[in-house]
Amino acid sequence: MTSEDIGPGTARPGGRTARVRSAVLRAAGDALAEHGLAGLDLADVARRAEVGKTTVYRRWGTPATLVADLLADMAEQSLPRTESGTLLGDLRANARLVARTLADPRQGALFKAVIAAATCDTRTAAALHRFYDIRVSEWEPCARQAVERGELPADTDTREVIRAVSAPLYYRLLTTGEPLDEATADRAAEAAAAAARAGAFRTARP
C-alpha cells in the first residue's frame, strides 16, 4: 500500500515510499480540512509534503483517489476497540473515541469536508463508505459479545448498535456545532445500549 508506482495494498511497507505516502496524506488532510475537495490540488499537496509533483501525480492521479487513500490510512491508524466486559462500557469507549476525533479542530474539519464531498462525488462516497464499514467491523464484536453474554436479544443487528452510538455525534458535528464532550459521548452510548436492550435493533421484530 506504499508504492509510488503501483496501487495501494500491493507493496511492502516501510522505507522511502512509506515516508512519502505519510507526508502526502498528511498534507492532503491539511489541505482538505482547509479548502474542501474542490480546493484539493495535487500540486499544492506536493508542495506541502515537500515531494515532487511527478510522484504525487503518478501515485494518486486525481484528488478523489488521494482522498480514498487518505480515508484508508485513517481507518488503518484508528485506535482498536476497547473491551470492558460490558456492553455499556464498550459503547462508552467507542463514543468517547468518536467524540474526541470529531472535536479535534483538524479532524472535525476534515470529516466535514469529506462528508460534504461524498454527497456529490461517487468515488469519495465509496471511500467514505469503506472507511465506516471498517470502523463498524472493528467495534461490532462489542455488541456480538453482549449477545453471547445474554445482555442483548439473540437476533440483535449488532452492526446497527455500533452505528447508533456515533450517529448523534455526527449529527451534532454537522448541524448544531454544540460541544462534543465526554458527557455527550456517554449519553449517546447510554441511549444506544438502552435501545439495544429494549430490542430496537432486533432483526425479527415482534
Automatic annotation (TrEMBL):
Pfam families, per the entry: TetR_C_11, TetR_N
This protein's record includes keyword Transmembrane helix: no
Limits of the HTH tetR-type domain: 18-78
Positions of the DNA-binding region: 41-60
Highest rank taxon of the organism: Bacteria
InterPro entries to which the protein is assigned, alphabetical: Homeodomain-like_sf, HTH-type_TetR-like_transc_reg, HTH_TetR, Tet_transcr_reg_TetR-rel_C_sf, TetR_C
Annotated protein name in UniProt: TetR family transcriptional regulator
Signal peptide start and end residues: none
Keywords of this entry: DNA-binding, Transcription, Transcription regulation
PANTHER family in the record: HTH-TYPE TRANSCRIPTIONAL REGULATOR RUTR, TETR-FAMILY TRANSCRIPTIONAL REGULATOR
Species assigned in the record: Streptomyces ambofaciens
